[in-house]
Amino acid sequence: MSADEFEPNSTLTRLYPEAAVGGYSRKDGQIEFYTRINALVDESSRVLDFGAGRGHWAVDPMPRISKQLRWMRGRVAEVVGTDVDPVVTSNPSLDVAHVVGLGEPLPLEDASVDLVVADYVLEHVNAEDAPALAEDIMRVLKPGGWFAARTPNKWGMIGLGARAIPNSMHVRILDKLQPGRKAEDVFPTRYSMNTRGDLNRLFAPHAIHVYGHSSEPVYFGRSAVAWRVAAAIDHFTPTRLAPTLMIFVQKKAA
């Protein structure tokens, strides 16, 4: 695990002074999501990282605690990763990596995984693939196992903004808002699994737990004014319309 030193940007520390202690704010969605994931695993768990990608978080600058929470290799029995991009085979956080094409079934046995994680992946799933994917995720999970996902809310500020902009322009716009973000980490968005209604339909009859979360508005670049405006909008936005959905689905007992 990389031990690169991380320095929070000036906008973060200006608006969230606590970021000077440990490098993260009280609203950090990554800390929230992975703390809850860590509560679901132990040394005997087998974990599937669905849409694992190149594991940029393992090598890019990031608060040390974020990397500690995300890095499960060596702390659980096995971490398996899948992705449509062959770059997944270079992901250092995985014990095993598989390249899986769009719409292809997961190369895992039935009831062989304790936890499936999909971190900012569901928004890229095609509508025609969503039902089969949900079924396949439940297939590989053991009874009582968990599917954990973090994804933009289709009806939240991020989802509405992303859907208003053609996919062909996402790289150009994000490059202006988030300098340094690599083009290979930007993917077309579909938003076919990004509402409570979609999730209830796709994952019934399993136990579905979904809640909204508002993190720091990093999508608005480094402008303190833009961050303040976004934070004000979040403050008055109903929880059901929060920018991010935290999703936890427990597979029903056999």
What sort of overall outline do the alpha carbons produce when their principal axes are compared?
A: globular
Our count of helices gives: 9
Strand order within the widest beta sheet: 3-2-1-4-5-7-6
- Amount of helix: 25-40%
CATH superfamily of the domain at 10-153 and 190-213 and 245-250, by name, is: Vaccinia Virus protein VP39
How much of the sequence lies in strands comes to 15-25%
Number of strands: 7
Order of helices and strands: HHEHHEEEHEHHHEHE
Average pLDDT reading:
89
Low-confidence stretches: none
The radius of gyration computed from the alpha-carbon positions, rounded to a whole number of angstroms, is 18 Å
The CATH architecture of the domain at 10-153 and 190-213 and 245-250 comes to 3-Layer(aba) Sandwich
What is the CATH topology classification name of the domain at 10-153 and 190-213 and 245-250? Rossmann fold
Terminal CA distance reads 37 Å
Q: What is the CATH class of the domain at 10-153 and 190-213 and 245-250?
A: Alpha Beta
Largest sheet: 7 strands, mixed
Structural class category: alpha/beta
